[in-house]
From TrEMBL:
Species of the source: Drosophila melanogaster (Fruit fly)
Protein name: Lethal (1) discs degenerate 4
Locations listed in the record: Cytoplasm, Cytoskeleton
ATP-binding among keywords: no
Record's keyword annotation contains Cytoplasm: yes
GO MF assignments: gamma-tubulin binding
Major location (coarse): cytoplasm
Amino acid sequence: RFQLDQQNIKFLTTGQAGMLLRLSELGYYHDRVVKFSDVSTGFNAIGSMGQALISKLKEELANFHGQVAMLHDEMQRFRQASVNGIANKGKKDSGPNAGDEMTLFKLLAWYIKPLHRMQWLTKIADACQVKKGGDLASTVYDFLDNGNDMVNKLVEDLLTAICGPLVRMISKWILEGGISDMHREFFVKSIKDVGVDRLWHDKFRLRLPMLPKFVPMDMANKILMTGKSINFLR
């Protein structure tokens, strides 16, 4: 997947070259997440729930960039200390030991967690391409209960963000009997051109492809009936 520059590889040992190739993998997954979070690429999820996912991906990228900035600061502090002939030993930090030289070994020890997180973000975002609404929520939901606590927490955070617009749509429906769904993401739909004698039966129906897996059918029917009742009482 990656190759080192042939002009500079001669200055590296075999071990150093191998470590650099491993570190480059993190950059690859980072760029993949960036692509999925860019609406201009056409690889992202769509609709208001898709926008919520994109915002969450951008938040994850911002957190990662913050960690990289901390590593850069550590390296700059060491360089300055080296120039001054001072090494600030013993200072605690969340990255590699502050005051110590930043080595490839230390970077490899640090990059494992960010790499794992970026790999899963890429896998989830890839599965969510061009999906919306309940279908999008179901796709993310499928990544739960995989046996990894970090991944489960990540998926829960993504679902919480994605379901924000869905909760607002449900609230508007059951409290006001109205549907605000310009992207056709909601699992309740309004049918046009329904005869007066069929309004109660046919005006509003479930949009089953947009029903999230974690919403049981009986609950969906209750939500449908509640909103219908409010709508007809208005």
